[in-house]
Structures are given as structure tokens and as C-alpha cells.
Specification:
The complex is a heterodimer. Chain A has helices at 2-31, 37-52, 57-74, 86-152, 159-190, 203-217, 238-255, 295-298, 310-324, and strands at 199-202, 224-226, 233-236, 262-269, 272-279, 329-333, 339-346. Chain A is of the alpha+beta class. Chain A folds into two domains: 2-114, no CATH class; 195-346, Heat Shock Protein 90, CATH 3.30.565. The two termini of chain A are 23 Å apart. By secondary structure, chain B is an alpha/beta fold. The longest helix of chain B is centred in the middle third of the chain and has 16 residues, at 108-123. In chain B, helix 2 packs parallel to helix 3 (63-73) and helix 6 packs across helix 8. Chain B folds into two domains: 6-123, Response regulator (Rossmann fold), CATH 3.40.50; 129-229, Arc Repressor Mutant, subunit A (Orthogonal Bundle), CATH 1.10.10. Classes of the chains: A alpha+beta, B alpha/beta. At the A-B interface, helix 5, strand 1, helix 6 and helix 7 of A face helix 8 of B.
């Protein structure tokens, strides 16, 4: 579909340039006696067309048309076609060469650009990997250390000590699971938007699943839920959006100090569903607010070791997921206190 | 000793096999281990287990092949272990005949609960149905003879389709029924708008039953896959 549109636009562009060439030459014919400008103008036209259109075909077509036009309108005998004269063949070869060379150059440039984008993405991925590996080391140290402690000192440890070590192992494994889930989400999107598979999802089924999962992880945290009563179907990659909501809710639990209330609200207006997760905790430091969704990747070495920072990666995963759904996620501070996270998704047309 | 349930575990990862075995032994199940699809099929035919725990990503063949093979001759419950992948994998495993799936990584409690549920529903196909033709779950009651659904004694007015869906789900408690399975059972045919039609009906059922998101409801949403009616003993 897109290709067809593109081709149509290209053909129109070609016709436009050729017509412009033709008219320009007619006008020039009135003002100047000489005809030396005519082939130049056509060559310029062919060059422009090869530069702007995709592939070789239109460039070559336009050069052939130009040759015919020059032969027909601007060489003696006027308004008659005589294609076998040597001049005509030479000019045809010249124009074809221009078309092909320009086409080749354009394609080369486009490829270089693509490669540069690829390299940039690769370095982003490398940064993420570095940051993540760093964060993975801490829980792995605990797990490995605790296991060794249990195995090597099995007979010397008291029962409570065993339990405590094992609990720590479990806690850190759970943290690892969450981290890996986030990473998986990111890799699923990595190839740009290709892997996102949107399925129509019923809003209250989504919220139900999210709440049940969240309750399992944070059983003591109450959430106030406000969603419309109507049947609302939203095309989305369910697993990813589920992850976004869980991340936002957990983010509040771990980072909104002093929070007593947590809200999950969805409103629908003009085919747009707006998801809001807000709390009445300590809010977000205004300084880090602008880069809260990218901060993780930029943060070079500020005490990564000391804090278990799941938040950074969780939020940048949210941003990546929402962007892959052609939308944007926003964070701001609530009045009088607390933080607000918001994103919108298009609902299914109910026609 | 001899009347313990036999469970076949087909899983190529040694450590997972070992801890699943420990859990199952601790819960008084007899365990047979296998590490490939081919070997699993052999074990299945020679030991005739009561239940199979199957990993989908096996080195020699896709686990789906195993399900297809077993389903040609037997209705033994199969629980699939799937790495967190797409919904499609789950759907295709369920549609091939698997009874349930657990996403890796999973906890002990979850695994044991699923095994119990699968064994129970296999043993007594119409498990929660009382002799008088009624199904109960918490305060929900379905009277199959009168085709009436009540919650805490109050009759819930359901349409014909809604009742059929409820009745079908309640006869398969604790089993994930895929959208396609339910649609085929209720409407008999499958077209483009079917899933939407089912989702709208389910939304109406939830509303009529007074289900609230996040609470302990009768029906569990398996997003992108299907629905599952809860079982009393497995919450």
C-alpha cells in the first residue's frame, strides 16, 4: 500500500519535472536564439528525477522520454521524430549514464544512512547491556554466596539461618525474574515496530489481570481503581502493556516514599483511552524529571552498586513499549504531592 | 505405595528436572523422568503415567509433536511448561490437546496446584457437579436441569448464549479454554467477529455476576488466550 503510494508520487514528480523542462525550453527558445541550453536543462531534469525517486526505473524512463522530447520538439525537423540520428543516440547514452550514476549514488547514500542508524541502535543496546549486566551482578552475588554458604556449612548452620539464607535467595531470584521480564519485553520490540502484535483487548480483562498479578507481588498495597463501565476494546500487545502497568504500579510502591494511596485510572474520550497511575508519595525530583524515562541509559556510574535500581530500567522499558504503540508516556508531579504517570492508547473503532 | 500417581516429566534441562522431581516426590507423586521427545513417547507408552509435565522446547522435536502423539490414543492430562513467549505458543499447545500451561519461572505452589487440578478433573470429569445436577463455586450455583444461574441465592438473568458459555466453562473448571474452543462449542462456527462477540458476552456475564477487576472472581481471564473457570479448591 505504502509502496504504491510512493510509486504514484514518484511518477507524478517525474511528469512534473519533465513538463517543467519542456515549458522552460519553449520559453528559453523565445528569448535566446541558441539551442545549446536545451539538452542541459533536460539533463538537469533527469538528474533531479533520479535523485528524488526510488530505484533506477523512473530515472531511466525520464532520460528516454527526454531524448524523445528533445528530438521531437527541439531538433530539426521540428515536431517530427527521427531517433536514428547519431546526435540523438549520443545524447540518449549521456542521459542514461546520468540517470544510472545518480541512481547508484543515491542508493549508496541511503545505505550509509541506514548503516549509521543501525550502529546507533547497536550502541544503545550495548549501553543497556552494560548497565543491566552491572545490575544483575548484585543479586547473583547474593544467590551464589548464600547457596555456597548453605552447602558448605550445612551442618553448622541453625535452622533459622538456613531459612534466612534461602529467603534471601528467593527474594533476589524474584528480582532477577522481574528484570529479565523487562529485558525480554525490550528485545521483543527491538526490531523497531515489527514484532509488536496488536490484538483487540478488553479493558476490564486487562485491568483484572494486572491487579491480580500486582496483588501477588505486593499483597499489602491497596489500589483505588477507576475504569469506565462500558465495553472497551483496545488493540495492543497485551503482555507488553500489562508489563507497563505493573512496572508503573511497582515503581510507585518502591520509590514513592510516604505514599498512602495509589490510583489506577482509565478514562476514554474521543477513541482515546488514557491510562493514569498516580500516588500521593514524595513525588519526583524536578531535576531528574525530564530524563526519567531515559535516565537509566545515560547514568554513567552514579552509585549503581549501592542501590538496587529497578526503577530506571522499568521506566525506560515502559517508554519503549508505549512508543512502539505509536504513543508517548509522560511523568509529572501531582498537587499537592505525589507523582503521575500517563499514557494514551487508541481504542478500537466501534463502527 | 502403589496407588501413588505416576507423573512423567519431559524436560531437557537437567536442573529443572531435578527440582521438579524433588517437589513431586515431596508431594507423594511417583516420578518418571525423560529428556527428549522421542524418549518421552517411549516412556509414555511403557509406563502409562497418570499425568505428563511437558517442556515445549525439546532438543529433538517440538513438544507439540508429543501432545499430538499422546492425543491419538489417550486423554491423559498434559501440563505444558512454557518459557515466557507469545500467546500463540500457548494457544497452539492448548488447541493441540494440552490441558494447562505454566509459564517459566514458576513457583512450587503453583505447580502442585495445577497438577492436583488436572488430576482431579481427569478422575471425575464432571467434578464439581453434585448428584442433583448442580454446579457450585463459592456463592455461585448453576442448575443444569432448570438452566438457572444464581449468586448467593439470587437468580441472575442470563441470555441463552451467556448461559451456554457459563455452563460450558463450569464443566471444564480449572482448564484454560481458548477463544477458538469456546466459540466452536457455543456457536459451532468461527468467523472474523467471533472473538469480539465472545468478549462482549463475557463482559456482560461479568457485569451480571457482579465481578470486580482484581477481586477473586469466578472466571479468570487468560489474556490473549482464553478463559478459565476457577475451581473451589484451587484459588
Amino acid at each position: 500500500m505504502k509502496n504504491k503510494k510512493r510509486l504514484l508520487a514518484d511518477i507524478l514528480f517525474m511528469l512534473f519535472i519533465l513538463a517543467l523542462d519542456f515549458i522552460l525550453n519553449l520559453l528559453l527558445g523565445f528569448y535566446f536564439e541558441t539551442q545549446t541550453l536545451i539538452p542541459m536543462i533536460f539533463v538537469l531534469g533527469v538528474f533531479l528525477i533520479s535523485l528524488k525517486t526510488q530505484g533506477y526505473i523512473l530515472g531511466i524512463t525520464s532520460s528516454l522520454i527526454s531524448v524523445v522530447l528533445v528530438n521531437w520538439a527541439f531538433t530539426y525537423p521540428y515536431y517530427e521524430i527521427d531517433l536514428v540520428t547519431p546526435e540523438c543516440i549520443v545524447s540518449a547514452v549521456a542521459m542514461l549514464t546520468v540517470a544510472v550514476l545518480t541512481g547508484t549514488l543515491t542508493i549508496k547514500i541511503k545505505n550509509t544512512e541506514k548503516m549509521r542508524a543501525e550502529i546507533e541502535k547497536e550502541s544503545m543496546r550495548a549501553n543497556l547491556l552494560r548497565a543491566v549486566s552491572h545490575d544483575l551482578r548484585t543479586p547473583l552475588t547474593t544467590i551464589y554466596g548464600s547457596c555456597s554458604a548453605v552447602i558448605e556449612n550445612f551442618n553448622h548452620l541453625k535452622k533459622e539461618e538456613h531459612i534466612q539464607l534461602l529467603n534471601e535467595i528467593q527474594e533476589d531470584s524474584e528480582w532477577l525474574i522481574r528484570m529479565v521480564e523487562n529485558l525480554l519485553s525490550v528485545t521483543r520490540i527491538d526490531g523497531q515496530k515489527v514484532n509488536i502484535k496488536k490484538l483487540p483487548t478488553v479493558l476490564d480483562e486487562l485491568i483484572d489481570t494486572v491487579l491480580i498479578k500486582f496483588k501477588k507481588r505486593c499483597p499489602n498495597q491497596e489500589i483505588e481503581v477507576n475504569i469506565p463501565d462500558d465495553f472497551i476494546s483496545i488493540p495492543m500487545d497485551v503482555m507488553l502493556i500489562e508489563q507497563v502497568l505493573i512496572n508503573l504500579l511497582e515503581n510507585a510502591v518502591y520509590h514513592a516514599k510516604g505514599m498512602t494511596k495509589l490510583w489506577l485510572t482509565v478514562t476514554v474520550e474521543n477513541n482515546l483511552a488514557k491510562f493514569t497511575v498516580s500516588d500521593n508519595g514524595c513525588g519526583i525530583d524536578e531535576e531528574i524529571l525530564p530524563e526519567i524515562f531515559t535516565g537509566y541509559l545515560d547514568r554513567k556510574n552514579t552509585n549503581i552498586d549501592s542501590t538496587r535500581n529497578n526503577m530506571g530500567i522499568g521506566l525506560s522499558v515502559c517508554a519503549t513499549i508505549i512508543r512502539a504503540h505509536d504513543s508517548e508516556i509522560f511523568a509529572k508531579n501531582n498537587k499537592p504531592c505525589g507523582a503521575v504517570f500517563e499514557f494514551t492508547l487508541e481504542t478500537e473503532d466501534n463502527q | 505405595m502403589n496407588n501413588r500417581y505416576k507423573i512423567l516429566v519431559v524436560e531437557d534441562e537437567k536442573n529443572i528436572r531435578s527440582f521438579v522431581k524433588t517437589i513431586l516426590n515431596a508431594n507423594e507423586y511417583q516420578v518418571i523422568l525423560s529428556d527428549s521427545c522421542q524418549n518421552g513417547i517411549m516412556m509414555f507408552t511403557s509406563y502409562i503415567p497418570d499425568l505428563v509435565i511437558l517442556d515445549l522446547g525439546l532438543p529433538d522435536k517440538d513438544g507439540i509433536e508429543f501432545i499430538r502423539y499422546v492425543r491419538t490414543s489417550s486423554a491423559t492430562p498434559i501440563i505444558v511448561l512454557s518459557a515466557r513467549s507469545t500467546e500463540e505458543d500457548k494457544v497452539s499447545a492448548l488447541d493441540a490437546g494440552a490441558n494447562d500451561y505454566i509459564t517459566k519461572p514458576f513457583g512450587t505452589a503453583e505447580l502442585v496446584a495445577r497438577i492436583r487440578a488436572a488430576l482431579r478433573s481427569y478422575r471425575v470429569t464432571e467434578n464439581a457437579i453434585l448428584p442433583d445436577g448442580k454446579f457450585t463455586l463459592f456463592d455461585l450455583c448453576i442448575d443444569y436441569n432448570k438452566r438457572i444461574v444464581t449468586v448467593a441465592g439470587n437468580e441472575i438473568k442470563l441470555t441463552q448464549t451467556e448461559y451456554n458459555i457459563m455452563s460450558y466453562l463450569s464443566q471444564n473448571t480449572d482448564k484454560v479454554l481458548t477463544y477458538a474452543t469456546i466459540i466452536k462449542e457455543i456457536w459451532g462456527y468461527d468467523d472474523v467477529g467471533s472473538i469480539k462477540k465472545l468478549q462482549v458476552n463475557m463482559a456482560n456475564i461479568r457485569k451480571k455476576l457482579g465481578s470486580k477487576p482484581g477481586e477473586t472472581n469466578y472466571i479468570i481471564n487468560e489474556l490473549g488466550v482464553g478463559y478459565r473457570m476457577r475451581d473451589k479448591t484451587n484459588i
